[in-house]
Amino acid sequence: MNKRLRPYLEVMPIVFLLLFILIMGIFGALIQSFGYFPIIGLKEFTVKYYIQVFKSEIFLNSLIYTVYTTLISSVLSVCMGVIIARILFKTKMKIEFFYKIPIIIPHITVVLFAITFLSDTGIFSRIAYLIGIENSQQIFSKVLFNKNGLGVILSYVWKQTPYVMLSILTVLKRMNSSYEDVAVNLGASRFYTFRKVTLPMLLPTILSTFTIIFAFSFGAYEIPMLLGATKPRALPVQAFIEYQNPNLLNRPYAMAMNIVIIIFCVGSVMLFNSIIRRLVEK
């Protein structure tokens, strides 16, 4: 057996099993979303559940809220990750252990940290009160469980920024620094060199990283469920609530909402990938 192929062949059984579970789950959800659910007597295909979804004010508000929190957190994570990675690369600071910690921490633990530090009775609120900010409790009450999504955004940024840093640092370490040196020797400023020389070379990695964290955040459940507002809810949270409805006649509606989430995520990934390919070709 070819030694190069052996590792791939060894993982093929589990890969096929996971793909089977994933494909069958999506297929089952797709069939039910079109109203075919024989176990409760629904045997005719229809698109009325998709029409109900897009006419629902709850769904539209959830979609807007989810896009808002996901887009803001992803943009902030990418911007902060690129800037911090650039600083670490130039200063040669060895703090890899510290910025990798958030990557391995589960999202449920991030929620616990957010409640401990950012709630109206949390550590930051108490510190603010001790230094003379008497309305600190009122200020921090607007961070978590609020429709502005600030707690969700901050949690995603704290979790995702180190991942962006790791991706960008890997590219910076492999990048030929002679391009920057030539630009500086010709009189270009450091900022101009970064904007015109370094950033274009980092752009494919930046966009691919943005695609990953955007798609993940859009479909994530834990953080918006535990830190988000009760109205509007994030789309995955609303879809799960619809799925839990004890009336099984509501199941096709819930599945239609889940299929919309999948289509939106896949469509976003395809769009960003097409942009990345065009940038690479240039």
UniProtKB/TrEMBL annotation:
<feature type="transmembrane region" description="Helical">
    <location>
        <begin position="12"/>
        <end position="39"/>
    </location>
</feature>
<dbReference type="InterPro" id="IPR052730">
    <property type="entry name" value="Sugar_ABC_transporter"/>
</dbReference>
<feature type="domain" description="ABC transmembrane type-1">
    <location>
        <begin position="59"/>
        <end position="272"/>
    </location>
</feature>
<keyword id="KW-0472">Membrane</keyword>
<comment type="similarity">
    <text>Belongs to the binding-protein-dependent transport system permease family.</text>
</comment>
<feature type="transmembrane region" description="Helical">
    <location>
        <begin position="199"/>
        <end position="221"/>
    </location>
</feature>
<protein>
    <submittedName>
        <fullName>Putative spermidine/putrescine transport system permease protein</fullName>
    </submittedName>
</protein>
<feature type="transmembrane region" description="Helical">
    <location>
        <begin position="253"/>
        <end position="276"/>
    </location>
</feature>
<dbReference type="GO" id="GO:0005886">
    <property type="term" value="C:plasma membrane"/>
</dbReference>
<dbReference type="Pfam" id="PF00528">
    <property type="entry name" value="BPD_transp_1"/>
</dbReference>
<keyword id="KW-0812">Transmembrane</keyword>
<dbReference type="GO" id="GO:0055085">
    <property type="term" value="P:transmembrane transport"/>
</dbReference>
<feature type="transmembrane region" description="Helical">
    <location>
        <begin position="59"/>
        <end position="85"/>
    </location>
</feature>
<keyword id="KW-0813">Transport</keyword>
<feature type="transmembrane region" description="Helical">
    <location>
        <begin position="97"/>
        <end position="119"/>
    </location>
</feature>
<dbReference type="InterPro" id="IPR035906">
    <property type="entry name" value="MetI-like_sf"/>
</dbReference>
<keyword id="KW-1133">Transmembrane helix</keyword>
<dbReference type="InterPro" id="IPR000515">
    <property type="entry name" value="MetI-like"/>
</dbReference>
